[in-house]
Amino acid sequence: MNIAIIGATGNVGSRLVQEALARGHHVTAIARHASGLEARPHLDTLDLDLADSARLADALRGKDAVISSVRFASTPLAAVLGPVKQAAVRRLLVVGGAGSLEVAPGAALVDTPAFPAEYKPEALAGRDWLNALRTEKDLDWTFLSPSALFVPGERTGTFRLGGDTLLTAADGRSWISMEDFAVAMLDEAAQPAHSRRRFTVGY
Questions:
Q1: pLDDT, tens digit, 9 for 90 and up, residues 128-165
Q2: Using CA of residue 168, residue 119, residue 83, residue 46, what is the dihedral sign?
């Protein structure tokens, strides 16, 4: 596949690049300082600010899929969605957050008293992205939410998938490594199973 990854130098984005290249995909890594990534076969880099929508659209043309790994609170959905549509890319996959996942019917994690205040603006913006995508009629999108604890770790390839409800392990913890999150995302890119839906991944 020919995949563009927006936000390719971040903690999650860099792991998505690694996983995609390991699978033999051609990757265009897009970020403000993407050229700082280590040169590798099948990897193109593009230093770009998302405010340059015309240049972003040009970079996305001909891609089989676009994966967005950007901060919601500082990035309007239109900054990604517009160029993707302009480039006529069929699929958009979004690195989501856990805050919008339900912990009880009708109750999202972000709305619980224990949710950390410092993460709330990003979580609320992520929920806004998801709600806007759910009204999207022209694009095949997927929104992948991690578990509550989303940390660097190991690539095990063993995890569970869920829908709109926060996953918890037998010990009560809700977590996923960034490496296994990347596995789940690239699985979805290669074999779509959650078209126009959100899903989640956890142990």
A1: 999 999 999 999 999 999 999 999 999 999 999 999 99
A2: negative
DSSP letter (8 states) at residue 75: S
Q: Indicate the number of domains in the chain.
A: 1
In what helix (H) or strand (E) does residue 67 lie, and over which residues does it extend? strand 65-68
Structural domain harbouring 198: 2-202
Distance of CA 61 to the CA centre of its chain: 19
Burial 125-139 (b: 16+ CB within 10 A, else e): bbbebbeebeeeeee
The bridge status of strand 140-145 relative to strand 65-68 is: unpaired
CATH number of the domain that residue 168 is part of? 3.40.50.720
